Amino acid sequence: MEEEEEARRKKRRKGVRKKTTSTSSSCFSSFDRAVFPLLLAAAVRGAQDPVACSLLRRFLRSQRLAIAVPPTSPSSNPLPGGFLSLLPLLLTSRCPAVAALSAEVVGAAALHSMEMNMAIASDYEVVKCLISALGSQSYRVAKAACNAIMDLSSSPNGRERLKDSLAIQSLLCLYCQVESVPAYFDVPQDMDKPYSENSKGYSRDKFLALILDAAMTLINTCNEDCSKRISPELLKKVLSLLCEIWHNIRGLTLPTNNNRLKSFLRSSEFNLAETIFRLSMNQIRPAPWDSTDVRMIIFGGKESDFENFILNYWENSPLVLQGMSKNSEKANTIFSSVIGSFNPKIADNIIDLILAGLVTCPPIASDELDINCFLHEVKDLLGSPIVHGQDVRVLRTSKLNPMCSQDTGEMEEHFFTNDPFTIPKCKKAFLDGYTIALRGMEFRSDEVAAIAEALADLFGQPSVGVNVYLSPPCSQGLACHYDDHCVFVWQILGRKHWTVSTHPTAVLPRLYGPLKNLGLKSDSVRSMQMLIKEGDILYIPRGYAHMAHTVYDEMESQGSVAADYSLHLTLAIEVELPFQ
What we know:
Blueprint: H1 2-27, H2 30-45, H3 50-68, H4 87-91, H5 96-112, H6 114-121, H7 124-132, H8 139-152, H9 156-164, H10 167-180, H11 200-219, H12 232-249, H13 257-261, H14 269-280, H15 291-299, H16 303-312, E1 319-321, H17 329-340, H18 347-355, H19 371-377, E2 392-397, E3 412-414, H20 423-431, E4 435-438, H21 446-459, E5 464-471, E6 486-493, E7 496-501, E8 527-532, E9 537-540, E10 546-549, E11 552-555, E12 560-563, E13 566-573
Antiparallel strand pairs: 1-9, 2-3, 2-4, 4-5, 5-13, 6-9, 6-13, 7-8, 7-10, 11-12
């Protein structure tokens, strides 16, 4: 009996052992039980043990090949369980081949399936070590890490994790280092060979383009201002380098090393323009003058002069402020700086200055609160050449009238109706009596931008738009019209004769509201006739019909007639309804 009882107890113990073994086998795969400890030991020994490095390289190559097989289902996982926990050690290995192969495996896995991409992106240590690999002194490791970041950024989750892990800053810092130090990496090619696929210069330029593509992908998909996380010194240097590349792409500067770089960039020039815009849109430039200075050059040195304007003229009556922009040394300095930015000697020079190399400025409403919404709408427009009708108009009015009326036959003629806009054709149109009107000067000139911002602060308005008008002698550009915003006309060069109605429309037009036909008859409209000279400023409230034309200067003493062109700025103050 005792022997039978002992046999039953042994049988029960044996069954328990089998059950435990079975449970352990189901919880741990053969990789976890056999391969994982071996790889972990090899990773810890690292570059000190050639055998360990060889083992890691063979395993990583096999994983890279396994991942290359197309997934059988969206949820397929080619990586063995527990492998992700080894990646931080492998990515930071002192053996360059191991670190590079690890980054290549990460990149291949990120592209293999969305599930794998999310698994890698959710592992903070893997992402952090991948970014730290960018700082490796090994060209192969840094290049593999950069490629892996590009692959990981193919999903929204991957991009967000990379941004949170400061990948943008690391990429930009690496770009500046490689760009400024030609021998930053010991690229294994012959430096003496001509520029080709086997030269160091070729490999370096290709790598710089890869870094830029990765950085631009992350920057242009940000829903917040990523520039706040970048040091001011790095941001300034990066913007300078990006602008140089931009000018090379547009052919605005002599060819440099960056000129070769453009052939490797996968991102378009629109992506580059958006990156520059995003990095610079919140840059604060020290303004050369403030609202007090602008108040002084327009209204005079006393605060009471501005108060008098607000009480008696604002949205009530036109006003000529003669020579105010030259009434003091400070005012004269501001006026001279604006004149100097246009090179006033020859009209052709001014046309080249204000039009050459310009890009389109898509209109943005002053009450637009979400800049990302605006950037999404104009994604394929940023950086494109100026657009006729949107950025620039070349037009003339066929008849000069004392005051406009639909019955007088006055009509605007536009030079570019079917032909594409070009600067040579624009110069020809100018000689034929057409006025050149360019909008968005507050985005194109530092001097004008400072004045526009100061004027907006002075009037407590969200923005001030600035247009520039260049008119040939004895010509009229725009037909008689009224605006839905108040305008300050600042005569920069030459003179212009203005005719302004003394009465506004029955109802003052609202911003972006429809502008109805004037229907004014010259015999029933009282008007003000004014000759505006250099330095004069003319205020025209919204709703007041007006027109202007250049004039002949009769020089009686010499018995001759001198014709001058005119250049003036219009500073438009948008009078908004209160925010609700």
